[in-house]
Amino acid sequence: TATTEIYTQAFVGSVRCVQETGINAEYMGFKIKMIRSLRSLVPRAKVLATRDFHLHEYQSKDIMREFGVTVQKGGIALTPEEAFKVAEPLNPKGGLIVKAQVHAGGRGKGHLTSGLQGGVQICKTPAEVAKYTKEMLGYNLITKQTKAEGLPVKAVLIHEGIDINRQIYLGLLMDRKYGGPVILASKNGGMDIEDVAKNHPESIMIEPVSISKGLGPEQAAKIVDKLEFANEKQRTQAIEQLQKLYKMFIGLDATQVEINPWAVTPDDDVYCVDAKLLIDDSASFRQQKYLKMKKSSLASEDVDPNEEKAEQIGINYVGLNGNIGCMVNGAGLAMSTMDIIKLKGGEPANFLDVGGGASAKQVKSAFEILTSHPQVKAILVNIFGGIMRGDIIAEGIVSACKAVELKVPLVVRLTGTNSQEGMAMLEKFTKETHGKYNIITANDLDDAATKAVKCLKQIDHATEYTSKLQYLSLIHI
Questions:
Q1: Hey, what's the torsion of the CAs at 354, 358, 359, 364, to 10 degrees?
Q2: Rounded-to-5 percentages of helix, strand, coil across the chain
Q3: Element (H, E) at 345
Q4: Which of 102, 188, 349, 473 could form a disulfide with 322 if both were Cys (CB 3.0 to 4.6 A apart)?
Q5: Calpha distance 302→103 (Å, rounded)
């Protein structure tokens, strides 16, 4: 599979850029964090949405066990009583670990709405495991990678702790520049890889792997030797596990396998302590076992219904917390549009890529998704016409305005194929409806972003003025 996530590409590219050019690392660290907060998606051929289904840590570890990768013993629990039972037969020598199962990084540094600090707890007894489980289940876990309200915790993973002498970062990703898999590794494990890229970019190693030849023992040994394992026992285990992880990566049609930390114990054993596994949804027809595993997950799934709707109609959508809805064709242009909105003082409400050949019906559906976002106060359409024609976009906009009774200002920038025809259609529609719909045309992206942000300021000013009038009328009464 040559498909990849947008943040994977941007992340590997950003690390490479830092290493090769010495670009400001603090800014690059910020960009990497922003990119990783977007969970999507590069358009696929035939204008289908390339998506990945995320598995929880407990599921990822079950799969790694299937492939012979060394992980700790443990299990999932849905109640404090179950947590106690799971913990009882485990060896408490290295501690008993309780982990909230949510799709977010930074769990250990997060906090629960119950008041508990940390979504990862180290315990000494099954009774303590049950106590912390009670303080996690039914509450939201808030980390730097979640929304402000956090994510609900419906299950916890209980497993044996291990004493760790050394922590390594290991990632297997798909990278377009190399046309296939790359192995990303750093001797600085156990911390956010974004921070490593920011502070120690030189410590990150990128090793491409031939998709046709696979990862042989010689190349695996080369990678392991660069990570400087202390002795032959560690080295042998690391080589074996790396090859098993690569076999799993390819066998699952994964876009990412991230192990952080890849840990070494005082007994010189090598463990995969924490795991993140993403499987390409386009390969779901041959990964039915794992797709069913996700759908039957015992832990919480942070699913935006608009994302599911977008996936069904073949467009890419990710909801954010801003108030300017965006509809763009092309993932790169969509991210640039979001950047410029931000630079102009606005906040994008979403990432939405309609792809290169969307129909008027898809455009209409995209508007329905945008207007259902509770915070959207204005919409910006930015289309660069190649395969995508401006008149098709305009037709979809007209249809959408009528269908959803558009109430918010709409800023439209069209350029390229049939863009003039499209703009003419919008002007005609505006005249025929006597200004019922506030459609504003823009000359370029900078102009469009400026006008969208200006619309918000006007709305906020009008709202404030109305509130003052209402207040004065109440005083008068």
A1: 0
A2: 45, 20, 30
A3: none
A4: 349
A5: 7
Secondary element (H or E) of residue 114: none
Kindly indicate the confidence band of residue 242, based on its pLDDT and cuts at 50, 70 and 90: very high
**Three-state secondary-structure class, residue 324:** strand
- d(C-alpha 79, C-alpha 81), whole Å: 5
Cα(133)–Cα(155) distance, integer angstroms: 9
Q: Are 375 and 323 in contact (CB under 8 A)?
A: yes
Residue 301 token pair = 């799934």
Mean pLDDT, residues 190-205: 80
What confidence tens digit (pLDDT) does each residue in 139-171 have? Answer: 999 998 887 888 999 999 999 999 999 999 999
In what helix (H) or strand (E) does residue 186 lie, and over which residues does it extend? strand 180-186
What pLDDT is attached to residue 31?
Answer: 41
Between CA 185 and CA 169 the distance in angstroms is 5
Instruction: Supply 317's token pair.
Output: 């959508």
Please give the Cα distance from 158 to 393 (Å, whole number): 51
Decide the pairing of beta strands 324-328 and 378-385. parallel
Q: How far apart are CA 381 and CA 328, in angstroms?
A: 6
- Return the active site residues: 169, 258
Instruction: Write out pLDDT tens, residues 34-43.
Output: 444 443 333 3
**Alpha-carbon distances, residue 204 vs 145, 273, 424 (angstroms):** 22, 20, 52
Residue 315 confidence class, pLDDT cut points 50, 70, 90: confident
Distance CA 135, CA 143 (A): 16
Would you state the pLDDT for residue 136?
97
CA–CA distances in Å: residue 51 to residues 12, 40, 468: 18, 7, 47
